[in-house]
Write a structure and sequence with these properties.
Strand content: 5-15%
Pfam families: MarR_2 (PF12802)
Helix content: 55-70%
Number of helices: 6
Protein name: MarR family transcriptional regulator
Organism: Streptomyces doebereineriae
Number of domains: 1
Strand order of the largest sheet: 1-2
Largest sheet: 2 strands, antiparallel
Number of strands: 2
Radius of gyration: 19 Å
InterPro entries: HTH_MarR-typ (IPR000835), MarR/SlyA-like (IPR039422), WH-like_DNA-bd_sf (IPR036388), WH_DNA-bd_sf (IPR036390)
């Protein structure tokens, strides 16, 4: 006897492009976490610090939207990074109840160390794929992002 949940999706569902992207993301995230752990940093914290570095003055709400996580998740990470002296909150120049996020000197140093680890992971990928395939992959991923944003 067959139950309704035995075949809820097509047999080829796990062969879809979106699943391939997700599997690659899981693998990369796991490697980032593994390699960043000796620095006392998680991949999520690296991502947060990178975003603040690239766009100083972001608010927690803006970061949450950008990272597609809850404001509570951002607040928790910001509090940890602030306790470590890597992030500083400063009052917004026009909105007195809004706090902007900025890297401290310690945050810049931590980000520099963490980014060297991430560069190593990227080099591993590029070496395995070769320069041509690595460039193609980057271009295809940019195209995927554009297509999905436009849809």
């Amino acid at each position: 006897m067959r139950h309704d949940d035995e075949w809820p999706v097509a047999a080829s569902a796990l062969e879809r492009v979106t699943w391939a992207l997700r599997r690659a993301e899981w693998a990369v995230q796991a490697r980032k976490d593994q390699r960043l752990r000796p620095l006392g940093m998680a991949a999520a914290q690296y991502t947060l610090l990178m975003n603040v570095h690239s766009d100083p003055g972001l608010t927690g709400a803006e970061l949450a939207r950008r990272l597609n996580v809850t404001p509570q998740a951002v607040a928790s990470q910001v509090a940890r990074l602030e306790e470590r002296g890597q992030l500083a909150r400063r009052p917004h120049p026009r909105h007195r109840h809004v706090q902007e996020l900025h890297l401290t000197d310690a945050g810049r140093a931590s980000l520099r160390d963490a980014d060297a680890v991430i560069v190593g992971i990227e080099q591993l990928i590029a070496e395995k794929l070769g320069p041509k395939k690595a460039a193609q992959l980057r271009a295809l991923l940019d195209e995927v992002a554009d297509v999905v944003r436009e849809a």
